[in-house]
Amino acid sequence: MIVATGPVHPVAEEILGEIVVGDWRARLADAEALIVRGDVDVTTDDLDAAPKLRVIGRSGVGVDRVDVEAARARGIPVVVTPGANARAVAEGALTLALALLKRVPELGAAVAARDWEARDRLAIRDARGATLGIVGFGRIGRELADLGRALGMQVLAHDPLVDDATTPLDALFENADVVSLHAPLTPETRALVGPELLSRAKPGLVLVNTARGGLVSSLDDLLAALESGRLGGLGLDVFDEEPPDPAHPLFAHPRVLATPHALGQTVGAREAVFRAMAEGVAAVLRGDVPPNVA
């Protein structure tokens, strides 16, 4: 039996056959494969309840909610899909950044309020000549760097694991006009962006997070940075708790643009992600070595 924690793209069933969706914990005893979607935690107890489990497929690359060490100890590979939606996420991050540089949310509200003077009152900024800081220089970060350079942006990158991304984090925040987060969520990167780093940001910085919500210390800290002027705009596609509390005052701020962890789920990217994941799961089930394992 193949079980999924949430809806799957039809291409996954084309490759794997029937996939049972929903009530996944009740089906673990019979599951040979588990497809993990969304904000679901797969714990040691879940693995103990799945004696037949041979493989876990993750529709994406983040495995912070899967106990990978416990899976490895049981000989269960966790198949991931690096790069399958990298371009889509990079385009989404750039979309948020450009919308905030161009003050699109505020200008849209101005039209609704018949506030035509807003076009003279609001400082609308250019991408060309701006500095783009990228935190996490893997596939997505590199895609975004290429897009930013095509617009005439200067690129700084920080990633302790990448030789050509050596800008110190504090220097990146001090010098960038836009910072986009693309680091994985690990114990070392949790709350990476907090009050101390935000206090060093170049005034008016546009901050974008399409990676993991836990990279930021809290919504309260982001709101304080907006109100102080350290942040000039905030684009969020991810949250530490999903969905977040819509009553939080951050979401009423005119310079905040939020989306529901959706920017990497374009039509093409969804098919590519599920195809890569399903092919990896199928490889394990037939006794082969999958191409990408966490």
What do you see in this structure?
This protein has 294 residues and is α/β, with parallel strands linked by helices. It has two domains: 102 residues, Rossmann fold; 173 residues, Rossmann fold, CATH 3.40.50.720. It is built from eleven helices and eleven strands. It has a six-stranded parallel β-sheet, with helices on both faces. A five-stranded parallel β-sheet has the order 2-1-3-4-5. It is elongated, with a radius of gyration of 21 Å.
Proportion of helical residues: 25-40%
Helix tally equals 11
CATH names the topology of the largest domain as Rossmann fold
Major sheet strand order: 7-6-8-9-10-11
What structural class do the secondary elements suggest? alpha/beta
In the CATH hierarchy, what is the class of the largest domain?
Answer: Alpha Beta
List the secondary-structure elements in sequence, H or E.
EHEEHEHEHHHEHEHEHEHEEH
Distance between the termini: 22 Å
Sum this structure up briefly.
By secondary structure, the protein is an alpha/beta fold. It has eleven helices and eleven strands. Helix 1 packs parallel to helix 11 (267-285) and helix 4 (86-101) packs across helix 7.
List keywords for this structure.
six-stranded parallel beta sheet; alpha/beta; 2 domains; elongated; 294 residues; five-stranded parallel beta sheet; 11 helices; Rossmann fold
